[in-house]
What we know:
The protein is of the alpha/beta class. It has a domain at 1-67 and 289-448: EreA-like (biosynthetic domain) (EreA/ChaN-like  fold). Helices cover 47% and strands 14% of the residues. The protein has 20 helices and eleven strands. The protein has helices at residues 5-16, 28-34, 50-67, 78-88, 115-130, 148-162, 164-174, 184-192, 200-212, 214-219, 226-248, 253-276, 290-293, 300-303, 309-317, 356-362, 377-382, 400-404, 410-413, 433-437; strands spanning 18-19, 39-42, 71-77, 139-144, 284-287, 321-335, 344-348, 367-371, 386-389, 405-408, 416-423. It is globular.
Amino acid sequence: xxxxxxxxxxxxxxxxxxxxxxxxxxxxxxxxxxxxxxxxxxxxxxxxxxxxxxxxxxxxxxxxxxxxxxxxxxxxxxxxxxxxxxxxxxxxxxxxxxxxxxxxxxxxxxxxxxxxxxxxxxxxxxxxxxxxxxxxxxxxxxxxxxxxxxxxxxxxxxxxxxxxxxxxxxxxxxxxxxxxxxxxxxxxxxxxxxxxxxxxxxxxxxxxxxxxxxxxxxxxxxxxxxxxxxxxxxxxxxxxxxxxxxxxxxxxxxxxxxxxxxxxxxxxxxxxxxxxxxxxxxxxxxxxxxxxxxxxxxxxxxxxxxxxxxxxxxxxxxxxxxxxxxxxxxxxxxxxxxxxxxxxxxxxxxxxxxxxxxxxxxxxxxxxxxxxxxxxxxxxxxxxxxxxxxxxxxxxxxxxxxxxxxxxxxxxxxxxxxxxxxxxxxxxxxxxxxxxxxxxxxxxxxxx
Length: 448
């Protein structure tokens, strides 16, 4: 019988893929292909899949141990992740790994308050503790910009200790936000529609003043380590960028998306610059969603005018950046039904027939690695645009096609892809009744 193009592609993928068996050497081809790259961006097709968190952590451990990576940067808020950073570098008073996750109170808490993250933080602390006193310890940093008010508090706390007069000026400037009651959505709405004056000048002036005093603060009795000033300066910069982001939210998705991803890419640049100044050759592992880390130019996003972290890092660092996507065909996922709603353990419908995930499922391989940089029939066949699934913190199976699929050219989007055919939900540290119960099996067709 004559093979169809889809069958030929499936066969080519099956023959080319490196099957993952759970053995210690599973990722040898991936580690070898990374070579001396300074950036390894590891994505995820959902924010609530156990295998994505676990395998991303396992790859990261190998990059730290074998390739000299010293920085883990994630899709989390800067001040919350910095508490983890202090702990794993033995620079905090937190006694246990679970203590440092207490700051993650903003929806969706399960993204970082879950068992897989807890295990990785414990490993990272133990690894750093095993290093010699003069060795560079691995740090953990957040790239996102949602923490406007928490970052304001961090700037004020710092200035209260080092320069009380400057703290008074900062408190006056930041009081511009006070009458919004820490409701960033209300601030964005009011300023976008002219109902209130924006705080743009105040946050810009505060950042400028802080930067102007950098040298002075660093020299004051040796009480201000360089890392601490870098931390507070980034918080002040985050406040400036977050203010602009929330103002842009009511002006259209493209503008706010681009502001957010540029902020994250710029934060990566600042991490590299900061640590390189200290004599390091900084190498960074990045954990974010596929939609942030796959090159946007190869997706519907790019066609609509959006860019993302993966695209910007590739443009800035070229072959020094490796982009890795993670996909699944079916299983369960931790997600909510609406923004701010409780976490649920939801069933993931089998992927649509004309998707990349469906092609991977048809190989019959339960889990595999596919190098997309190589020149072979599998990669050539995958260049034809297909649907790709993305589940964020909300999963709406009733509107699966519209809500969770976009067109992409996978080999242009990523350098490699890891596929796990059936996956299970990541386990939140706080399990809601909705999560414990899970969804009942569906009885209607999955392709609706």
